[in-house]
Amino acid sequence: MSSRKAVCLLSGGLDSSTCLGVARRDGFECYALSFDYGQRHRVELDAAMKVAKFFGVRKLRIARIDLRAFGASALTADVDVPKNRSAEEMQQGIPVTYVPARNTIFLSFALAWAEVLECSDIFIGVNALDYSGYPDCRPEFIEAFERMANLATKVGVEGRTAMHIHTPLISLSKAEIVRLAVLVGLDFTLTHSCYDPDAAGRPCGHCDSCLLRRKGFEEAGLPDPLVHTL
After folding, report:
1. What is the three-class DSSP state of 89?
2. 172-225: per-residue pLDDT in tens?
3. For 106-112, which contacts have Cβ atoms below 8 Å and span 24 or more sequence positions?
4. Which residues make beta-bridge pairs with 7?
């Protein structure tokens, strides 16, 4: 079993793209996994394809599932995306942009592909510091999923390997993520972070994700090459 292959979850956003860059920097042969899950726009999938090509992944898979069947999120249902919220407001409760069980579902798909590829490493760009209150971005969730993965897989039960969920961004501020992205050579113009882009795919500049991204670049002392509609 190769220890150098890795399945990397890739949305095309700043965090997941940086995470992929870290995996490449660390010598992994990367297999990128993205999702067409019924999200309100496809801009992020276009970004994921560009980032995957940029980092030279071995293969990109786009899994198609429809989380619109359950709704209950501003990203998969006819619900307004919150705009112009302060940092304090973002930390109060779980926002409507949370997609129920999304990271659990995504990691389960990554786990299945990792078994097929006979690799024991999965990378996910979750962040528990500058984040919008999502429960499935916390270290406790990742640790619990990793334990479950080693109970649920053939290789885990047979004791041939141990699945490991890599979260290199989990304790970083958004500014630190921006600086890390520079170190791994990410082209920021390929990424997409906005929850509510316009018809041309331009970021709104006002949703939580846009505001957190702006905060990260400002605190890192670097310009964001993406033009925001203000």
Report:
1. helix
2. 999 999 999 999 999 999 999 999 999 889 999 999 999 999 999 999 999 999
3. 106/9, 106/33, 106/35, 107/9, 107/145, 107/149, 107/165, 109/33, 109/35, 109/63, 110/7, 110/9, 110/33, 111/149, 111/152, 111/153, 111/163
4. 31, 122
Sign of the alpha-carbon torsion through 46, 11, 208, 218? negative
Q: Residue 213: what residue type? A: R
Length of the chain: 230
Is residue 9 helix, strand or coil? strand
Q: All domains of the chain, ordered by start, with CATH?
A: 5-220 (3.40.50.620)
Contact 121, 28 (CB under 8 A): yes
Binned at pLDDT 50, 70 and 90, residue 1 comes out as very low
DSSP, res 83: B
Q: Where are the beta strands (DSSP E) in 105-187?
A: 121-123, 164-166
Longest dimension (CA), the chain: 55
Strand ranges of the sheet holding 59-64, from the earlier edge strand across to the other edge = 59-64, 29-36, 5-9, 121-123, 164-166
Token output for 27: 């010598």
How far apart, in whole angstroms, are the C-alpha atoms of residue 90 and residue 92? Answer: 6
Could you tell me the pTM of the whole model? 0.94
The Cα 195–Cα 206 span in angstroms is 9
